[in-house]
Every structure is written in C-alpha cells, then in structure tokens.
Amino acid sequence: xxxxxxxxxxxxxxxxxxxxxxxxxxxxxxxxxxxxxxxxxxxxxxxxxxxxxxxxxxxxxxxxxxxxxxxxxxxxxxxxxxxxxxxxxxxxxxxxxxxxxxxxxxxxxxxxxxxxxxxxxxxxxxxxxxxxxxxxxxxxxxxxxxxxxxxxxxxxxxxxxxxxxxxxxxxxxxxxxxxxxxxxxxxxxxx
Length: 191
Hints:
- By secondary structure, the protein is mainly α.
- The chain has helices spanning 10-17, 19-31, 42-59, 65-74, 79-85, 89-104, 108-120, 146-165.
- The chain is globular and about 40 Å long.
C-alpha cells in the first residue's frame, strides 16, 4: 500500500493554493492563449519541477524536494510583468517568488538559494545576477558558505538545463518557424 502522506509537500501545497499564485498562473494562460510557441502554463512549470526532481534523485545532487518544486513552479511566474510592463521575466519572477515563498513558510536561506536559481535560469552563470542573493557571484569566498553556494549553483544549473529540455520540440507543429536554432531544439526524450 502506498503511503500518500510520505509524498506530501505542505509548503508547495500552500504556495499553489495561494490566491496570488493562482492569479499569476491564470493571467499567464490568458496572455498566452493565442501563442503558438512554447507556453509557460502550469503544465510547463510542473514538468520542469518533476524533471528536476528526477535528475536530482538519479544524479544524487542532494537538493531538497520542496526547493526544487518551488523553483520549478516559480521560475516563469514573472511572465505577466514581462508581457504587461516589459520587465525581464526572470527579474519579475524573483520578486514574486520571494513573497510567495515567504508566505508559504520557506526560510530566508531557502529563498536565497531559490532566487539565485530563478535569476540565472535564462542566462549564463558568469553573467551578473539581478536579484536574490547578498553576494551575487556564483562562488562565495567564504568557505563556511561553500555548501550553500554549491547547492544554489547546482539548483541554478539544473533549472537552466531542464527548462529547455522539458520542451517537446520533436512533437511541436511550429518547430520549423521557431526562433530556437536547430541545435537548441530538444529532439530527444529525456527522463
């Protein structure tokens, strides 16, 4: 018999049940209703979270399940502000995620790790971050914080990788007109 309680994630349930999270998901779906290319709906967000968690388990990355799901669910939440205000979605996502994660009961350290990953999900890790950390460089000079720095970098790398690999380019009817180059398109089933 499967013990369902073992798989519950109370903070993720709280996050997803919040009116603000539901507002953003609904708004993204409305703003993208005529979009013919990859969307940023709840299916994409959950796919990213689930793929991240599977890779975390299979590769022994040691990342917390609820952190993975929070990052997967919140990494594109700022699309509303990108569409309506012209703010880069990773910047807007950090601001929104910060509040939603606080409201869901995540610690400031967990939020810092998550915002670092969200901020970097669409850029190279060498680029300057725009939010989420007291020390915006990928490596912290203080060895006492090495574990946290390694954790947040692993989470950022994982999100960046899975965000693209979660797309089913090989089934997409608009792949021939997509702006992604052929080498960037996901043509293989992963996980």
